[in-house]
Amino acid sequence: MSGTRRFSNEALSNEALSNEVLSNEIHDSDSRMRSLLRHLCSALLIISFVLLLPIGPFLLSLASGKSKYARDYFGTLRRAVTHLRELLAKRAITRYFNSLWRESDNEDVTMGGHCNRCGACCLNRKCIFLEQTGEKEYACGIYGTTLRKFTNCGPYPQSQFDIELYNCPTYYVIRNIPVRSYPEGMATPAPIRKSR
């Protein structure tokens, strides 16, 4: 009888282990598929940017409602190439797709601070839409437009990495400490007192 019970416990244990391994394999496969999809989307977006470069100033004027991009055609092209290089250098496109699909391991942090309008987070002041408003003050040229809804600017910063990447002087990370809740009627543990 005990041999049968031991055998059935081992069988249950092996089945649980098999289910866990299968679950991990599915998760890994799903994670690889999402990673592949992110890279594919990033590549397609970069290729689109490059192919649309010749008509880019006109598209930017149309999308932003500002004719300055089309009027300064060659200047806009130069800034667009600089913008694209900086997007690639900072891996901004990959981080954009991560934020779209909420791929973050920073669930236990909150961002604190405020924007001081230094422009550092705008691709180190190389964003094509960044406009200088003062000696050391900048503003987004497409803030409030539909075009900005398709950028990664709104949720900045999302992690300590973002803050360090652009050397942001005013944002900081707040670590969230989990709070335990106890069922109603259950006594909460007394605080630990240090003995002197």
Account of the protein in words:
The protein is mainly alpha-helical. It has one domain. It is 49% helix and 8% strand. It is built from six helices and four strands; from the N terminus they run αααααβββαβ. It has helices at residues 2-52, 56-64, 68-71, 73-89, 92-100, 160-165, and strands at 109-113, 130-132, 138-140, 171-175. A two-stranded antiparallel ribbon has the order 1-4. A two-stranded antiparallel ribbon has the order 2-3. Strand 2 (130-132) and strand 3 (138-140) form a beta hairpin. Helix 1 (2-52) crosses helix 5. The chain starts with a helix and ends in a 21-residue tail after the last strand. The mean pLDDT is 79.
